[in-house]
Amino acid sequence: MVVNVDDKEQLIRFLAEASSRPGGPGLVVLDFFATWCRPCSEIAPVFSSLSETHTEVRFLKVDVDKNDSIASEYGIRSLPTFVFLRGNKEVDRLTGARPDQLEAKLREHLKQDSAETISQSPGRGNVSQPDLSPFLDTTQCECLNEDDTHPLSNLLSSETGDGYLLSDTDAQLIIFITFAQFVRLRSIQINGPEDCTLKRPIKVVLFRGKFPLKEVSYFGPQISLIHSKVYSDCGPKTVKLFLNQTSTPDFGACESGDAVQTLELETKDLIEGAIVPLNFVKFQNVTTITVFVADNQTGKEVTRIDRLRFFGTCVNTTNMQNFKRVAGKAGEGHS
């Protein structure tokens, strides 16, 4: 979104916000223009389109006739002029209405952002980062194909860490998470068991001759008449992440859709405390995230998740709980 700068104080505030961004100063592009400048008007739609595509960048327009002191401070001598800032420090500029070069410079600086994100990423393992669990809107979170006895609500509400999530009819899960305000995500924690033993209730029929004596359902330790199923490494493996969907997608949409990022989890990622870094540049201004678990470590029929957490920072104080679901009820799939 393009924002028009009204005065110098507003510009200072915008640049201060960009300078204090977690992970390093954010990219800001200033478009110095005038209403009487024809080239300025011609390239304005391009500038606006870039702002919609690259939401991680702050796009600001400065009318030189209304803000001559700002234009003088930046030494503007021709229009339009585009000034690229890293926080409040100028790193590049472009003069003239040249859409291709404007887009090329933007890509160049975003590429640098991506490289810095990778180099600064903590890697997979145990790290200390802000936990966004307090900012979840749990009333708008749901899971498809969850086991009735171990649903998503147990996982999200467990303060002791002993609640867990199980899949039901097969290994796949669709977890729809809603945040109460806009967030930037840096990493995700999806812990699960390296060795998972699940005891299922099994009907045992005892006979006296040819007549049933009684039937029992049994969850306890193994005896000669009870069989327990053992699933090794039933933590998740392939995980696709989708952003800012307005409702929970169905399994077909998740399987065929293009994810923002796909994770291939290894056994070491499942251990308690392990955190997987995300492509930070792609996870800006997040309101919802869909976690699609496509399979698990062994290809067995049950997937178990012991912990699901998101780490990053809040963008602002907009409370998303004021917004309602587009359609459907919690627990329903949507196409």
How would you sum up this structure in a few lines?
The protein has helices at 8-19, 38-53, 68-73, 99-120, 152-157, 251-256, 267-270, and strands at 2-4, 27-33, 58-63, 81-86, 89-95, 142-144, 165-166, 173-191, 195-198, 202-208, 211-218, 229-232, 238-243, 261-264, 276-277, 286-293, 304-305, 307-314.
List the helices and strands and how they pair.
Layout: E1 2-4, H1 8-19, E2 27-33, H2 38-53, E3 58-63, H3 68-73, E4 81-86, E5 89-95, H4 99-120, E6 142-144, H5 152-157, E7 165-166, E8 173-191, E9 195-198, E10 202-208, E11 211-218, E12 229-232, E13 238-243, H6 251-256, E14 261-264, H7 267-270, E15 276-277, E16 286-293, E17 304-305, E18 307-314
Parallel strand pairs: 1-3, 2-3
Antiparallel strand pairs: 2-4, 4-5, 6-8, 7-17, 8-15, 8-16, 8-18, 9-12, 10-11, 13-14, 13-16
Description of the molecule:
There is one protein chain. 21% of the residues lie in helices and 32% in strands. With 335 residues, it is α+β, with helices and mostly antiparallel strands. The chain has helices at 8-19, 38-53, 68-73, 99-120, 152-157, 251-256, 267-270, and strands at 2-4, 27-33, 58-63, 81-86, 89-95, 142-144, 165-166, 173-191, 195-198, 202-208, 211-218, 229-232, 238-243, 261-264, 276-277, 286-293, 304-305, 307-314. The longest helix is centred in the N-terminal third of the chain and has 22 residues, at 99-120. It is built from 7 helices and 18 strands.
